Amino acid sequence: MARRKLIAGNWKMNGHLDHLRELHGIEKAARAHPQVDVAICPPATLIAAAVARVPGLAMGAQDCHSADKGAHTGCLAAPMLREAGAQYVIVGHSERRADQGETDEDVCGKAEAAHRHGLMAIVCVGETEEERDESRAEAVVTGQIAGSVPRDASADWLVVAYEPVWAIGTGRVPTLDDVSAMHAAIRSKLAETIGEEAQGVRILYGGSMNGDNAADLLAVPNVDGGLVGGASLSADKFVPIVEAGATLA
Ligand SMILES: O=C[C@H](O)COP(=O)(O)O
């Protein structure tokens, strides 16, 4: 099944208003390559300003609460993010699973909230270095899929991102064979979890993706895009990844 590549940038807790200047070059690349989907997930405080500045570029958030409103100080609900102009929301990033103790059940609830409010949910999974060293990577990741993906999910609103924790921000990347094996395992677990819809769900790779390795990673079977951290912070570094995706589309 043909799946449109998605190149998504995650700015994490980086960037102020002046950083939005980087979005012009990224928007230009997105317009030049309409065969790929491009999105940037800046800090939530910047979403509305980013949408106003580059209306042609999709924006996403980095987290949402599972509830639509209520007494949850400091949290943001999916309808708020939608109102700010977000089209995507990352849920279950490993940094939140580690820093905020988010469980698979929490992540599943967040993905459901995203869907209720018309956001594409990017559900993140990935093993730690210790888990890989103990040959438990596939069991951990497929377990995260089983626990974090809502049973009624469809390719219209679910994206999965495989991000080995040890590859995030380290410059280390798994072998292409390892990426291929894990993405195939994720597709197969998705099929068990949500049935036929699994064939249309995009599975992104994330972890030290850059302009030099993107073409190879994006050519791996079942790699339908990238979730890019550090290299998404500047147009100069992100645009080559978009171009690599466009060449393969
Ligand atoms: O969400 C993005 C990932 O955590 C990847 O980050 P990175 O590209 O800086 O390794």
From TrEMBL:
Could you say which EC number(s) this protein's record lists? 5.3.1.1
Pathway(s) of this molecule: Carbohydrate metabolism; erythritol degradation; Carbohydrate degradation; glycolysis; D-glyceraldehyde 3-phosphate from glycerone phosphate: step 1/1; Carbohydrate biosynthesis; gluconeogenesis
Question: Where in the cell does this protein reside?
Answer: Cytoplasm
What is one GO biological process annotated to this record?
Answer: glycolytic process
Keywords (A to Z) from UniProt? Cytoplasm, Gluconeogenesis, Glycolysis, Isomerase
Q: Which of this chain's residues are annotated to bind substrate?
A: N10, W11, K12, G169, S208, G229, G230
- PROSITE patterns membership: TIM_1 (PS00171), TIM_2 (PS51440)
Query: Which Pfam family, any one of them, does this sequence belong to?
Result: TIM
What's its catalytic activity?
Answer: D-glyceraldehyde 3-phosphate = dihydroxyacetone phosphate; L-erythrulose 1-phosphate = D-erythrulose 4-phosphate
Gene Ontology terms, cellular component aspect? cytosol
Gene Ontology MF term list: triose-phosphate isomerase activity
Q: Which residues form the active site?
A: H93, E163
Similarity-based family: Belongs to the triosephosphate isomerase family.
Described function: Involved in the gluconeogenesis. Catalyzes stereospecifically the conversion of dihydroxyacetone phosphate (DHAP) to D-glyceraldehyde-3-phosphate (G3P).
Q: How does it assemble?
A: Homodimer.
Q: Which protein, by its recorded name, is this?
A: Triosephosphate isomerase
Q: Which organism is it from?
A: Parasphingopyxis lamellibrachiae
Source species taxonomy:
Bacteria, Pseudomonadati, Pseudomonadota, Alphaproteobacteria, Sphingomonadales
